[in-house]
Structures are given as C-alpha cells and as structure tokens.
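#onboarding

Welcome to the new folks! Below is a worked example of what a typical request in this channel looks like: someone posts a single protein sequence, and someone else replies with the predicted structure as tokens. Don't worry about understanding the tokens yet, we'll cover that in week two.

Example request:
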Amino acid sequence: MEKFSFLQPGKAAVFKDQYVTKVKECISPYVSGSKGEIGLIGLPFSKSSISLSQAADAPAAIRSCLGYYSTYSGEKDTDYQEYHILDFGDVITHPIDVEDTLNRLYVSVKEMISTNSCKRYIVLGGDHGVSFPSIRAFKEKYGSVGVIQWDPHHDVRNLEDGGRTNGTPFRSLVEDGLLLGENLIQIGIRDFSNAKKYRYYTAEKGISVYTMADIEESGLLTIIKKEMERLSKKVDFIYFSVDMDVVDQAFAPGCPAIGPGGLTSRELLSSIAAASRFEKVKAMDIVEIDPSKDFRDMTSRLAAHVMMQFMFR
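Example response:
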C-alpha cells in the first residue's frame, strides 16, 4: 500500500478542487520588473476617522475574502484564472501623526504607480481620508482626473474643526486644486446624512450630486452611463472612490456609519461593472469597512465582489 500523509506542514488544511481556481490564487507579491493586470495596495489607516473605527484592519479582511470566490464568471462564460494581481503590500503608518501618515500613503501610492507594472490599480483603505493622498498621487502621474464617488456623505467638511479627517478628502482635493468640482460625481447621497452648509458647498463648486431619490427617479445605471460618458470626454483618467456605507445597512453592516435607505449590494455591483467598462478608468479605492463591526464578513465579502466587478470587466 502506498504511504500517504494527511499532514501538510506549513499549509492550511483546506479542500482543493482541481478544477477550481480562487481569486486569491491570482495574487502574487510585486517584485521588480513584474507585470500584471491589477496593482493592489493596502492603506491601513483609520486614525483620521471622526467616529470610532478599526477600518485599518480592512485590507487584510478583504484580501482574505478573495479566497471564497472562483475566477470563473458564469454570466460571461469566462475564466480569469490567468489574471495577474500584483500585491504591493500595506503601507506602514505613523502611530500618532496623521499628516505624516497621509504623506506616507501618498509616497507609497506614487511608488506603486511609478513602476508602470499594471493597467489598473485597487487601493484598499482604511477610512475615507486615504482617498486624498491616493488621488493626489494618481493625478500627478496621469493628469486631469474625474472621480465617481459612491457615498451617502459629501465628505467636504471644513478643516478648522478637526483638520484632515475621513470627512474632508474631497474638500481637500478641491481646495488644493487637484480636482475640479465639475469633475466630481457623488452617487448615493442619503437624506438626513449631511449638513445644509456642505450641500451648498457642493453646488458652489459645481459638484454633481445624485441623491437616493434621484437614483429612484432616473435609474442608477442611466446616471452612471451619462456621467461616465461626460467625464471620458473631459479628463485624462477616471478614479472610483467606493465608500461602503453607501450600501444599506442590511447589506453592509460592517461600516462605522451604517444607515437605512442605501443602495442594495446588487445595485452597487451592477453600477461598478457598468462604470468599469470605460477605458479611461485607472483606479479604485474601497474604504470605510470596520471588520470588528461586521457579521460573517458580509461587508468584506461584498468589497471582494466590488473588486471582481472592477477587475474582470
């Protein structure tokens, strides 16, 4: 009888189907000179959150959830098992200094894209404050930027009350001249979630705001198509910023700022898929997941699906 050991030193005791490739198996660490379809980086920072948050743990949680799903799309009858995702790792943040950390995030994203190793990039936050240094780095590399922001909040709070926080990234970008208001599209703004002052600020800066009521009236995909076509004619590249609390609390319980009346998980996924088909799309960040508040990884699993809709277009 052939001797066989069920012990696998250094390996997880996980069932393996020879015909199934999991998305996580497509990820490999970046090494100098390597090329891939997607560059992945973690910005594990949530000390700028105005509410208690452990969103710094989200990059690891989302990566782990990619191990649940296969590379085969039955809807497209396409297997993406040869897809290459290059992981640049997580940025080491400063333990107490917010401004120093924001600079580290900027420098690290800039370092990733300077390799010219990938066609598109995914940035895993962290709270929404990480979008400011990330978009800044991409703009310096690729030129004028258009942003689609999935979010129930405007995130244009004043800087006097607390400095740069997860509520200020888009005010920071606009005020610093990195993003024109007319090139920022906000999708999923919810009722009773913002201040009058900030709604008027978005109007003053020419930011396109689509509330949940607008989505119900006009249709989410209709709005996405219209704005993507407009931006594609105006800017050099397009960046997605996906705040996961845009999704209704029933579908995304692991967010610091959960609330009712948001998008369904299916609406988020279909809108990401529709927007990702446009050629000028260069990068996406996913922010505001707190794994400590999640239930059975529901929110991180949804974020993994957001990644797949973005990657496998």
